Amino acid sequence: MASRRDFLQQGARLCALGALGAPLGAAAQTTSMEPPPDLFDAQLLDIDFWVKPRTLSVVRPASGERAKLLYWKDGEMIDSAYQELCHLLRDVHGRATAPIDPKLLEMLWGTQAFIARYGLHQPLEILSGYRTEASNKRLVEEGVPAARKSLHMVGKAADIRLANLNEEVLGGLIRSFRQGGVGYYYRSGPKGGWIHADTGLQRTWKG
């Protein structure tokens, strides 16, 4: 698994960039040229990163589907690609689709596009996207990590995994977008755990 330390030498060049704009129009407060505490920090991104076309590459292990979709270009959502992404992030077991919060797609794309700068090109594994109320209730009753009022039920959350990034690094990157909640789910085994990302209140937890 890759860690912050693994990327320290590669990221040293970022320190020479100086003060750059923060994502989504927020102002970054950079007062020093010292290396950032977290190498994968979205607050280091310049505005050019956020205005370029957005292509999201995802895979759904539960259904075996995968896709690479250009869904945003020239400041506008491409509706056909958006609808396909909503389908890919559907409740696979409940066989239901719902609108996915565009801010969530932005967070997922930003995560993938950011690590691509370091030569890491792999699809996001979507373990869970939208959930029906019935599917969410079933998970709660089975003791699977799921909040009773989960943001999954309103299309504002996804459980994700990225090959070659452990939970700590992936979660830290998503946290740096400052756009919602981040849950860390550590698990042993060949595939490891996952990260919950949502567009609700900013908060973190471990499950």
Detailed description of the structure:
The protein has 207 residues and is of the alpha+beta class. The protein is built from 6 helices and 8 strands; from the N terminus they run H-H-E-E-E-H-H-E-H-E-H-E-E-E. An 8-stranded mixed beta sheet has the order 3-2-1-4-5-7-6-8. The radius of gyration is 17 Å and the shape is globular.
Map the helices and strands.
Elements: H1 8-11, H2 47-51, E1 54-60, E2 65-73, E3 76-77, H3 79-88, H4 102-116, E4 124-128, H5 133-141, E5 157-161, H6 167-176, E6 181-185, E7 194-198, E8 203-206
Parallel strand pairs: 1-4, 6-8
Antiparallel strand pairs: 1-2, 2-3, 4-5, 5-7, 6-7
In short:
The chain is of the alpha+beta class. It has helices at residues 8-11, 47-51, 79-88, 102-116, 133-141, 167-176; strands spanning 54-60, 65-73, 76-77, 124-128, 157-161, 181-185, 194-198, 203-206.
